[in-house]
Amino acid sequence: MEPRVLVVSLFAPYSVNFDAGPKTPSSGGGASSVHERQLGRSGSTGRSAVWNGRRSSMHRTHTTPLGRHAEPHSRRRSTFSINAVKLAPISRNSSKTSDGGNATSPCDKPGAYLTPCNEGDGADPAEASNEGVAAADTSRISDKPGPSQLAYSIEEAAGAHMPSPNTLDFTRKLNIDQMREKQERKTGAGKHGRLLHNKLTKAEPDAAEVRQTPPGGWYGSALATGAGSTLASNIAAAINDNGGGNMTPGPQIGTQLPKEPQTMLTDATAVETDDPFTVEHLNVGNIGLFNAVNASLDLFAERVWIGELGITTDGWSEERKTAVSNRLLDEFETLPVFVSDTEFEGHYSRFSKQLIWPAFHYIMPEMPQWHGWEKSAYEAALATCERFADRIVDIYRDGDIIWVNDYHLMLLPKLIRERLPGAKIGFFLHIPFPSSEIFRCLHVRKELLEGILGADVVGLQTFSYKRHLIQTAKRVLGVTGSPSGLTLDRGHVVVGQYAMGLDPVGVEGKWSNAAVGELIEFLNEKYAGKYLLVGRDKLDHVKGVRQKLLGYECFLEANPEFAGKTVLTQIALTTAEHNELQVQVMDVVNRINSKFGNIEHQPVVFFHKDIPYSQYLALLSAADAMVITSLRDGMNLTSHEYVICQREKKSPLVLSEFVGTYGSFNGGALGVNPMDTRAIAQAIKDALVMSDEEKLARWNLLHRQVLTNSASSFVSSFISDIESAHAEAERH
């Protein structure tokens, strides 16, 4: 029988907004006070405190690591409404809408100039949630000549690796309908059979007391789409050529039904709040995980997201929490975890971001500059993980697979094991795992290792990270290790290598959109006769943006013949302001533009913000090379997107040797040491002068790996290993 999977990450993919309803907000901890906390806490960043509906205040918590003594910062996340527009995907070779009418979006005009939009000019968030998405489609382009660099309307921005709200709305409805119909068809249970079994199901109610599912589910019948058959056949061919690759068969469909479906009592469903709220999609958190799981829905009988909402909930009543929990779980397969602001600040801002994140990227956080070492930070992290563990127990039922994700929740698997000794638990780390020489310096090294080893399977992204974990556990805990994992007193824990990928069919579907095709034509005309280099990274020290710019400067100095015909378009995603101050890239940008630029040519086009996904795909497609120079990184899925978008040009990829993806590409990328500016300069030149034959050979290697190490293969192999490892442990 297919399992139910509880996917646990710090942030849930959905949140709520109490400020978009028609009712007047109540006072004393109601919607009004919550919204004030969302609007007013920009921290000491010097940025505008006006909420514009797109800025991520989480990433701007304070100017220095010492900012924890200031007022607690807002956890309100950048969101957009998922109920705004219903739009089916269109093919690139058609200018008609899905209903046969002519497309009216100005984005369909080839050669139109993109116009900038100031961040502070956005509409009120309550209005933007319903109107902003549709308005963006008709206001992002003008016919007037614009600036030389690519700019965009902030109203269109929907996140880094996130499709447009229209596409997401379409995909989300399809995914939920598919899962709900499959589950109800197999078990006969309605949608309320998923709700808080341990807390809400006190006794078997009378038939009259059980609330039934409306016919057709929440959205009615599922939408039907066609997946690209050509790409699907390519994936199958790549798997066959690689002897199956990493495509481990997933759990097989069974016929055994649950003993009895869960039910939800009338008393429980009647709990409501006087404050109306809307459900919104968070475009932050682990977007790659969200896309990977949603691309693998056929592997599960059901999946439930468990995570924090990204907003302050300190003033919420129990009735409000129950109402929010019921609706999110009932309609969006999401169970929220309520964490106080104090616990969240200590856990996320200090313990996770000022201790684990830098250390795991080979930057030792030292006192007194960093506060992750403080006892209160660890206590806050432990308290947060205990809240997660208690919440998981609330919904757990026998046979569930609990999948815990990323470094924020390294303490969680052990806490779950203590509460649910027989549970199937997996933990996957989405960032590098450092060598033992680094990890052993942490004051909570034992607690972190014991935390993740509460799982049946611990997954890492590369063989090197796997080896680091096994060696570190042997040295710190004194346990027995082998290439397959670690042997503890309670049994064997599998330590595996799982290359996370993306959904090639989904990315190609967005790439095939007509608007993307016309943007590609526009960029090709704009940069005709020039070489276009592209980069997209967080403006964080470990992402190596400054090193990339220094290498590019070295390239222009050593090759003056390229100085007037090469453009580097760098998209720098915002992050915590003290990280951006540490990177210091604008001095290099200005120096390059003043030294090699003129009134007709700008060698560096720098965006200190993200761009819409359609423009991002167009940039990747028009590029003559992509340059990624991270000092340390996990599976950089930007490189995967680049490979898919290069189906026509097949331009080369310059990739840091310290990115997890580099090893899996089997020599298809031009590897560089990001600390060697001359090596970066030489790699850029090699990419631009490479012959068409070599480009094709390298791209074929890259493309084959992207198709083989897909999102579905990653999820399938990891879930299968959790089940097999747990079954093996029970036999012994």
Write the layout of secondary structure elements.
Elements: E1 4-11, E2 14-17, H1 31-40, E3 79-81, E4 113-114, H2 125-136, E5 141-142, H3 165-187, H4 197-200, H5 229-241, H6 266-269, E6 278-282, H7 287-294, E7 302-308, H8 318-332, E8 334-337, H9 341-360, H10 375-395, E9 401-405, H11 412-419, E10 424-428, H12 436-439, H13 445-452, E11 457-460, H14 463-477, E12 480-482, E13 485-488, E14 491-497, H15 504-511, H16 514-526, E15 531-538, H17 545-558, E16 566-573, H18 577-583, H19 586-596, E17 604-607, H20 613-622, E18 625-628, H21 637-645, E19 653-656, H22 660-664, E20 670-672, H23 677-689, H24 692-708, H25 711-731
Parallel strand pairs: 1-7, 1-9, 7-8, 9-10, 10-11, 11-14, 15-16, 15-18, 16-17, 18-19, 19-20
Antiparallel strand pairs: 2-6, 3-6, 4-5, 12-13, 13-14
Specify the overall morphology. globular
Structural class: alpha/beta
Number of helices: 25
Number of strands: 20
Radius of gyration: 25 Å
Distance between the termini: 23 Å
Biggest β-sheet, characterized? 9 strands, mixed
Low-confidence region ranges: 22-174, 185-229, 242-271
Strand order in space, largest sheet: 8-7-1-9-10-11-14-13-12
Helix content: 40-55%
Averaged pLDDT? 73
Query: What fraction strand?
Result: 5-15%
Outline of this structure?
With 732 residues, this protein is an alpha/beta fold. 51% of the residues are buried.
List keywords for this structure.
alpha/beta; 9-stranded mixed sheet; 732 residues; 6-stranded parallel sheet; globular; 25 helices; single chain
